[in-house]
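Subject: Predicted fold for TIGR02099 family protein, 1324 residues

User T.R. writes:
Posting the sequence so we have a shared reference for the thread.
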Amino acid sequence: MRTVKQAWLYCLHKLWIFFAIFVVLMATLVSALRFGLPYAPGYKTDIEQWIKAEYGTEVRIGALSAGWQGTGPALVLQQLEVLDSSYQPQLTVRETGIRLDFWRSLRTMKLSAAHFELTGLTYRVDAQRWLGTGVATPTDNQQLFDALQDLFFKQLQHFSVLDSQLVFHNTQDEDIRLDIKALNWQNEGDRHQGWGELSVADVTANTLSFIIDLTGEPSKAQGQLYLASQQLDLLPWFQQLLPQTRKLNSAKLNFAAWGDIKAGKLQQIDVALSDNNVGWLKDGVWNKVALSDGYLRWVPMAKGWNLSSSPMTLSNSSQSWPGLQLQLSQNELGYQASLQHLQLGVARPLLELFSDGSEQLQSLLAYQLDGKVDRVDLVTERDQWYLSGQFNEFSSAPVADVPGVKGFNGRFVASPHFGWLGLKAQDGALQWGEAFSKDWTYKGAELELAWRKRAGNWQILVPYLSLWQDAFSLEAELVVNLDDKPDMDLVAELHGVPVQNAEQFFPKFYMPESVINYLKPALVSGDVSSGKVLWSGDFSAYPYAEKDGVFQAVAEVTNAEFLFDENWPSLTDLSAELFFENAAMLISSKSGYLVDAPVEQGVQVGIADLYNADKLIIDIKQQLLAEQVTTLMQASPLHDSVGETLAYLGVTGPVKGDVRLSIGLNEPTVDIKGAIDFERNGVALSAPALVGENLTGRLSFHNDILTADDLQLFISNIPVQFGFRGEQQQDNYKVSLLSQGLQNSQELLLSLAPQLEHFAAGPLNWQFKLDLLLAGEGYTYQADLALDLTDTELLLPAPLAKKSGQSGTVFWSSSGSQDNSVIALTYQDLVFFDASYVHEQGQIGRAHLSLGDKENAGFADGFTISANLDKTDFMPWFELIRHQVSQQSDETGLLPALTSVKAKVNTLKVTDEISFDQVQLQLKPEANSWVVDINSTQTKGQLTLAKDLMAQGIEANLEFLKLFPYDPLKAEAEALAAAESLAKLTKEQQIAKALADVVKPEPMPWLADLPPIKLDCKSCVFGPFDLGQLTMQTESDGERLTIQSFESRYKKHQLSIKGQWQKDTEAGVTTLSASLISPDFGQLMKDYHLSSAVAGSSAEVRIDDLSWAGGPTQFNYATLGGKLNWQLGEGSLSEVSDKGARLLSIFSLGSLVRKLKLDFRDIFSKGFFYTEMKGDLQLDKGVAHTNNTMVDGAAGKIEIQGYADLVTRQLDYQMAFLPKITSSLPVLVALLQFNPATGLAALALDEIVESAEVISKVNFVVTGNFDQPEVVEVARHTTEVEIPRSDLLKAEQEKRLRLQQEQEPQQQPAKPAANSKTKDKANG
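User M.O. replies:
I've generated the C-alpha cells; pasting them so everyone works from the same file.
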C-alpha cells in the first residue's frame, strides 16, 4: 500500500515539476511573444517570401501589426492581396483580424484561431468551379487556396466576414458580384455552417438571408444552401437601366431558395417565388407588375447549367395570367431559352419605363403589342442567335399606315439576318386608325411576312397576304427595301367590296381629304367585283411626278350608283373602272344609266392631280335618245334652262351629248359646259304644236346660256333653217327662236298635204318668230308666222284662187302657256280659222273654220265648220271632213271631233261630171253615228256614217239621186262622129287602136277595207238609165269585197247582181252573177235610149261567173270572161239601125236585115216579127263566142254562130236565113215595098212571077267591126212556088200607101245621113 502511495507521490512530484517547467516555459514563451509581437511588422516581407516559398503564390501585405489580446496573441493584416500569374489581384482583404487560441494551438500543435475576422474581402472566383458548371479553369494559387481552405474549414472553429464581396467571374458573361454584409462561419468537426446576409451588387438595395450547412471536407462536402428574401429591393438594378428618368418607384423580390451541395459542388437550386413586383406611379395612378406562385430550379450541367420553372402567375394591377413557364440553359456554345405562356401586354407598361431616349423602343411601344406567347425559343451560339415561337390572340394598335390587328395566331422564326412570321386570324379586323376611315373586318386572314438583310440593308417581304369575308377577299404581295431611300413593290387584288364601303379603302395619308369627302357621298351603292393595286417606287418620291415610280389602282365596279353631284341625278346600274395612277384619278363607265339613259362608255370622272386638285372634272359623252337627254337635263341644275328648253322642243331620236362638269373640291361650285349634236332627230314643239324630223345641228350651253345656230329641221319633208338663244332674265328664262325661208309652194303642199299638191304653184316666202318665257314649272309663249303669197299661184276652188303677182298673205299666230294656246289664221277676207289648244289633252279643244263670210258666233265645243260660197269644189275639203267623220269617239287627234258642218253653196262641184246646185248641207252627230242631211237640185236625203265605221258602215237613204244629165240627140251625134272617124282607118289600124286603148286597171286595194255599205234610193237616175228603186249592200273582210245584193226595180223590170272582188298582187279580180227579167225589153231599151229596133219582147238574161281584172267599177273587155244566156219572147225588129243596141250589134242583125231587104213588119208594127230570140255566149278574154244563137221569125229563121271580139270590135259570124215556105209571099212583097223599080219589073214579068222560084236558104258571112259590118252572101238555095196575081196587086196597093205615109214627115228636121260607104257595104 505504501509502495503504491510512494509511487503515486513520486509521480505527483514529477508531474508537478513538469508542470512547473511547462508553466515557466509557457510563461517564458508568452512573455517572448508579448515582447516580440510589436516587432511583427518588420517581418512582413519575410512572411510574403515565406508564403511564396511555401505555396508559390505572390502575396502583398499592405500593413502588418500584432499584439496580445486576452489569452492569446492577435494579428492584423491590412490590404492583403493575392496575385495571380498575371499579377492581377485574385483575392484582396482590406483588413484581416486574427486572435489565436494559444492553448489550443499548443494542444494540437497547430495554429488555432480563437477569432478570425475578414473585413472588405474581395474574392474573384471561377464561376464554373464554384457553380459546378462545365470544366473549371485551374487557378494559379491552388496551393495557397488549399491552405486557406484548410484554415477556414479545419483550423478555424469560427470566423466571420464583414462588408466583403464575392465576384463570380464568367468568361462568357458579365461578372456576378455578391455583397456579403455579414458572414458567420462555425466549424464543428466535419460539420460546417455559415449564416449571414448578402446582396447582389448594383441589383438590390437591401440584403437577403442565407444559410450554408455542410458536412465533410470542402472538396467532398455535402449539404444545403438556403436563401430567403423579404421585400428585397431591386430598385438599384432598375435605376441602372433607367438612369435618366428613374420612373420606377418600387421593385420588390420575395422568394425562398434551397440548394443541394454534393462533393463540394452546388447540384441544384430550387426557388419558391412569392410576391415579386415592380410598381410605379403614372399620371396619379399606381401601376404594378407582379410575378408569383411559382418555382424555379437551377441545375448545373456537364458543360453549363439549366434553369427551369413551374407555371407562374403574371399579373398587373387589374388582371392576372397564370401559366408562365421559363426554360434557360447554358453550355460552352451559348444559351438556349424557352418561354411559355407569356402575356405581352404585361410587359408593355414596363417597356414604357425604358423608352425614354430610345426611338426604337418608343416606336415599338406605339404598336401596343399584346397577345399570348404560347412558346418562344431562343438559341445563341457565339455571335449568332436563332429565335422561334408561336402565339395566339396577338393584337396591336395601328401606327401610321401600319394596321393594328386583333386575334391573330401564328408562328415566327428569326435570326440576325433573316426572319419569318406567319399569321392567321378569324372574325377580326385590321385597325387602321387614321390611315383609313374604317377598320377592315374579316372572317379570315392569313399573312406571311419575312425580313432579311441584303447588302447591309433590311428587306421586308410579304409573299402572301389574304383577307376574306363573305364575298369580300383581298390578296397581296409586297417587298419593302429599307435602305437610304425606302421603297416598296406591292401587288394587291381585292374582290366583292360593296361600293358604299369603298370609303374604308381610301388611304387618308395618300389621298387628299377633299377627294375623299367628294367620293364618300358620291359612291352610293354597288359592288367592287375586282380591284388591283400596283405600287413600285420610293416612298419619298410618291406621287412620282418625275415618273420615277408608279402607283396604280384599278377597281371594276358593278351594279353601282354614283352621285357625282347632289343636284344631278345619280348614275345607276353602273359598271365602271376606277383607276388611280400616281396623282391622277379616273372613273370610266362601261355601262349604266343616267336617269333612264344608257351611258355605256360615255362617262368619265377625273382629277389630274389629287394633291393639287381644286376641281373634279366629269365628262359625259354619249349617244342617247333625245328624250333621255331631256329627262336628264330636267333632273339636273339646268332643268330651268336646257331641260325645259329641250322639253319644249320635244326632240326625239338619238343625239350625241357632250357635257363637262367642273365641280369644286374646296368650294361648292359647279361649272357646266356642253353641247348636244342632233342627228336627224324628230321635234314636237309643245306650243305651238309642231312636228318635224331630221333635225341636225348643235346646241351649246354654258351654265344657263343656250346658243344654237344653223339648225335644220324638216317639217313634212320641208327643210327649215333656224337658230335660237336662251338666257336668264330677271324673273324667267327666255328663249328666242327665229326662222325664215323660201319654199316652192307645190313642194310644200306635196309634203304637207299631197292631195292638195296641185292647188298651188310658185315660190313662197315665210318668216317665223317664237318667244318663249320659262318660269318655274310653266311657260308662256308667242309665235307668229307670216306667209307671203305674192309670187304664189293658188289653184284653189273659187273664191280662194289667185294668180302669181297678186298680193296675198297668210297670217298665223299662236300664244298661250303650258296649259293651253289660242291659235288664229287668216287669209285675206276669205278664210278664218280660230282654235283653242289644250296641251294636256294633246289636241285642239275648240275650233271653227269659216269659208267666205266670217261668222262671229263664238266658239262651240268641238270642231265646227261653216261655209257660205257661191261656187266651190268639194274634193279639196273632203279629206278633212272624211277624217273627222271617220274618227272614233275614243280617238284623239290634233283637231277635235267634228261637231257640226253647215254649208251653203250655190254650185258644189264634185267632179267634172258631177255637181250639185243650191246645196244646203248639215252634218250633226248622233250617239253612234254621224248624220248628214243634204238637199240640192240633184239629190235629197240622209247619210248615216257609223262612228264604228268599219264594223257598222255607211247607210244612205235618198229620196232621189239624179246624176249625169243625158241628152239623146247629143249622144247620137257623138256616136255617128266616132263611127265616121273609125271608118277612115283600115282594119289593121282599127285593131291596133283598139289594143292601144286598152288600159291596165289601177290597183284599188282599199276596196278590201271598205266599211259595210247600205244604199236605199227611192229614185236613182244615172244619165239615160233610170234604175228606179235601188238597194245595195256590200261588205269587206280585208281580202275581198263582197256584193251581197244589188237590186234595181224600174217599172216592172228587175235587175239582180251578186258577186265579189278578190284582192291579189295586182288590181284584183271581180266576179259577178246577175239576172235581168223584163216584161218589155223593147220598151226598156227605148227608155234607156239604147235602141228602138226591138219592139215588145219579154226578156230573161242570166249571167254566170262574169269576171274581169280590176275593181267592180273597172269593167274592161280585155280580161272579160264568163257565161251569158239570153232569151227574148215575141217581138219585132222595127228599125234597120242598131247603133247603140249592144246585143244586136254583137250579132249585126240589123245589117243582116238590110242585106235581105226585109221589111220586118207584122200586123202590130213595122219590122221583122219573131216569136223567139235566144242563145248562149261564152266570154273568154274579151271574145264572145256563140254556136246556138237563133231568131225564130214569122218570115223565117236566122241561125248564127261565130264570135265577136269586144276589145277590137271585130266580127266573124256565119249566118243562115231560112225563109218559111208558107210565108214566101210576104218576102216577095217586102222586096217590092223596099224597091219600087224592082216591083215594077216584077209586075211586067207576070208569067215569071206567077210561077217563081222561092228562096229556101241563104248563107252569109259577117265580118268587119261593130260600126262597119260587112255582110257577104256566100250561098243561096231556092225552090219554086205559085203566087196568085191578086196577091201581087194587093202588094202594089200597100206600096203606094206606104209611099204616101213617108211623105208626111218631110217637114220634120232631117237626121244626119248615114255614111254612104257604110250604106253601100250594107246594100252590097
